[in-house]
Design goal:
By secondary structure, the protein is α+β, with helices and mostly antiparallel strands. The protein has helices spanning 19-22, 40-48, 103-109, 163-169, 183-194, 202-224, 270-278, 282-298, and strands at 37-38, 56-57, 64-69, 81-82, 88-91, 117-123, 129-146, 152-162, 247-250, 265-268. The chain is built from 8 helices and 10 strands. The strands form 2 sheets. Strands 1, 2, 3, 4, 5, 6, 7 and 8 form an 8-stranded mixed sheet that branches. It has a two-stranded antiparallel sheet with strand order 9-10. Helix 5 packs antiparallel against helix 6 (202-224) and helix 7 crosses helix 8.
Length: 300
């Protein structure tokens, strides 16, 4: 039975208290609202395509990976669920024999590197599927578990973290050498951090994700040097730490949670950021930003 950690103070038999995860913010992903029920065929596959059977859907025409979790997986040796460290353990696909990093398993592991959002739905039988939210793959591990035929095999278990938790908790994590200001060193660290998903679990997986996100953020903000990379105007104000305020924007994804390739993350002012996401000319503005970043990185 899928359930949230007891200490969180909620479960699936009561409305989810979103402020526990998102500081009072309801963060929609496209047409989906957290904890709302949807028809898998009509609301998901009719819009995004992708595999209509199984637990991992990888639409070819959209930058998204869609995951389904529920009790039915237990008959195939899967036991998804939350950990006390606040990560969601999700068993990979492969009903017989050892699991390998192909197709859906590779898509989950590499979704951040591929610039794709990871959405998780809980199957609710005839009720449909409930949208649990957007997550980031923070790591993975291998463990022995029975397959559909009852034989022990090596299974892949992903460590997923709610995207909203990255923004809320990143300030609690510290990178080595916080005084580092050399742009080339920050760039090197950001690329190394963003281009790998570690084999790790639990609290260390969460810390790894935060460090990766922070490495990309620090480099992108340093590259911008206090000037919005979209409108080319100075940051609207200084932070309490005396730094120009700009916001990271992921140009390849609908949302802005988690790390991405630094060549596809811009530092923009709040006004440009909102226009890109919500403005009638947002898509065109995003395309221009992509070209600006490309020219900068080409000369790096």
């Amino acid at each position: 039975m899928l359930s949230l950690p007891a200490e969180a103070g909620y479960g699936f038999n009561e409305p989810l208290k979103l402020d526990k995860l998102q500081s009072g913010k309801i963060m929609p992903w496209g047409p989906f609202q957290e904890q709302q029920l949807y028809n898998r065929r009509r609301d998901i596959h009719a819009v995004y395509g992708g595999q209509q059977q199984g637990g991992i859907c990888t639409p070819g025409e959209h930058t998204v990976v869609i995951v389904f979790t529920g009790e039915s997986g237990e008959q195939h040796g899967y036991a998804d669920g939350w950990t006390n460290e606040g990560t969601f353990r999700y068993f990979g696909e492969g009903q017989v024999g050892e699991m390998v990093f192909q197709r859906g398993n590779r898509a989950i592991r590499d979704h951040l590197m591929d610039g794709k959002d990871l959405l998780v739905f809980q199957t609710r039988g005839r009720e449909g599927v409930r949208f649990l939210g957007q997550f980031e793959c923070a790591g993975y591990s291998f463990e022995m578990a029975p397959d559909r035929e009852g034989n022990q095999r090596r299974a892949i278990v992903f460590e997923l973290v709610p995207s909203s938790a990255t923004d809320d908790l990143i300030e609690t994590e510290q990178l080595p050498d916080q005084a580092e200001t050399d742009l080339s060193a920050l760039r090197r660290r950001a690329f190394i951090a963003a281009q790998s998903t570690p084999q790790t679990t639990g609290a260390e997986a969460r810390r790894s994700l935060y460090r990766r996100s922070e490495a990309v953020r620090r480099y992108v903000l340093a590259r911008a040097a206090g000037v919005c990379e979209s409108c080319e105007k100075p940051a609207p104000f200084m932070t309490l730490k005396g730094q120009p305020y700009l916001e990271p924007h992921h140009t390849r994804r609908l949302s802005d949670g988690g790390p991405d390739d630094p060549r596809f993350v811009g530092a923009v002012c709040p006004s440009c950021h909102r226009e890109i996401h919500h403005g009638v000319h947002g898509s065109a503005k995003n395309d221009v930003l992509i070209e600006v970043i490309r020219r900068k990185e080409a000369g790096a």
